[in-house]
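Sanity check

After download, print the first record. It should look like this:
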Amino acid sequence: MIDRNLPKMGRGARALLLTTTILCASGTAIAQEAVKSRYSDDVIVVTAQKRSENLQDVPIAMTAIGAEKLDQLQVNEFQDYVKFLPSVTIQSTAPGFSQVYFRGVASGENANHSASLPTVGVYLDEMPITTIQGSLDLHVYDMARVEALAGPQGTLYGASSMAGTIRLISNQPDYSDTYGEIGVELNRVSRGDLGGQVEGFINAKLADNAALRLVGWYRKDGGYIDNIFGSRTYPTSGIAQNNAALIENDYNDVETYGGRLSLGIELDDSWTVKPTIMGQIQKNNGSFAQERSSAVTRRQQTVQYNPERGEDKWIQAALTIEGKIGNWDITTTGGHLRRKGKADSDYSDYAFFYDAIYGYGAYFYDNAGTLVSPNQYIEGSDTYRRNFGEFRIASPADAPLRFIGGLFYQRQKHIIEQNYIVDGIADSITVTGTDSNIWLTKQKRIDRDQAVFGELSYDITDQLTLTGGVRVYHYKNSLVGFFGYSAGFSSRTGEAACFGPAQVPGSPCTNLDKTTSDTDFIHKLNATYKINDDALVYVTWSRGFRPGGINRRGTLPPYGADELDNYEFGWKTTLGPIRWNGAVYQEDWNNIQLSFLGANGLTEIRNAGIARIRGVETDVSFRSEGFSLNVGASYNDATIRRDFCAIANASFDCTIPGGAGEANSLLAPAGSRLPTTAKFKGNAVARYVFPVQEWDGHIQFAVNHIGNRRSDLRPFENAIVGNFGAYTTADFSLGMKNELWNVEAFATNLFNSNGVVNAAVQCGESICGDPGNASGTGGVFYDYTIKPRIVGVKVARRF
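Expected structure tokens:
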């Protein structure tokens, strides 16, 4: 909701549109006119603090990418815009399976279905869309802006905004006129397949107080990974296996299609109703990793022995009601999200290495007692249901004493199903109720979060403002169901460990039923000093949290919440054609939820210890006539402060034995660098606009650099996997546009960098990944890389 009470800005604010960065630009021409009609000056409006404010007046380290710049930077999906956010790192394994991190707050989370919630909250308009699997991989089109809020945002955004928040803000229905756009694109990926997209929207004025906005898109991403021929022989049985039937070039193609329908109705001068429904279907084939093994000869190749594919379907319905009682703003918003994901995965490495090293192939036989191939594959399914509601009230924005606060509620149910299948095994070793499962995971996870929150700001002088905030929260998380083998295969786990009948349909019985909960509060304190209309400085002490959860291994207790304390000094300045924003910070991460693969390959989570991140982030921009330049960068020194032990204890003593005879081994010594995030990340974007008769021509060049990163916090495992090397990418575009047409040619990752963002193995690193293991065949790693060079053309027509 745009705040009609936003005070007028001074001379510096009137110059803001000319001095803003490429990354913090206004939206489309239509959106710019909508903003100008509500404000007397040209300003960039964001809603990071749940009020409409000038970006340069918000005392938060944040980046905002407007609609026009999202298009100029060739942004289609999550990974595309994250590379232009200096403080954000992404790890991805496939579409819909991405995790993001702010400022180095990452301990190597494996995003297991039964593990910790993410450290970063992602919102679509007013609704949180963060799930364990990863946030919705929404096709980015007709978005007003993307806002990235660095540091804890727990006061206003709650759980899983411990390290930061990303907000996707869609364009709202416009009551002023009927108009629209349609665009097409054709592209090709280097050494890969053709791709393209069609997208469009129409904004229909229904009346002076009502409008409808309909948006649709279809995108085809060409494949670039080749599944090449491979063969192996299982040592115990001598059974040979090859993948001749699955050989295919460019087999990891993706189809994405969806739409959004929004309605806006102004009931009177004070109240507005905005219902929205949005949905998307994304289907992908193959694997998105290049294999690192002796079987491959070049990058972008793999050897997979079982079909791999995925499907992610979701639909979200939301309703926002905005209005006034007196001169106080009231916002009530709520929504329901349904998400269904399916994934078929190869798991033959697990079968082969455990057979080669431990002789596990002897355990897989048919009803006649004859050994069968131990080849395994996974058929997985994840079903989500999320309900969300928030009530918010805000006092006038131009008053010296300002309050914003409200009530928050969300509940997410996650039905987890994973079938680990070995074809043709005997009934006696098959999990009851399945066709040929050697292992079944069938669980119901429920995460609940309730809170009361508020922030109070007071202008002590015209220049100095103090803000205090608090959020009192209660979470309750539970995990119930079944995981494991049949009783005929294991006498201690799975069905043999069941203590009751099935509570989750489709499971044979129940061997897991745990709940954890807690009530606590977090805070925020901020002092902002406005030097003049064009410069401010601020200091902030804020805290974020992540709820605790369940360890599904019965011998382990639930893990508690972890917290992040942020101490930050920042500045925002506009000096003629130059704008310079930045922040220096220290973040103390306490009771870290450390997840790792324990015995039998089960994820374990411990509140392992503490870490400290010291860093600086900045962006500098220059704009003069047709030329603009933006440079953004961040530096993070993130290390653990105490030894991390397999069994957590108050003294951080790794010699204390654990329960059930477990050894309390040292996982990582004090001083170890946190994984995933580079010490340095930077980007620069230069754009020049020039006249071409009746058109505006442009040329743009962008460069991004990611430094060296650890793959794992634990030194032993990191030595096996290896560090992720630094890489640099460059993007280029050239085009023309007028009032109706936009024509552009572009190339992303121009020099075809092969930067690695994540790596994985199908079982423990020392078994599946160690080249010196006892199999004699070397290890097999899967490196997930950025997309190769993509060259394309696109044409858009406004009407």
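If your output differs, re-run the checksum step. Summary of this record's structure: The mean pLDDT is 89.
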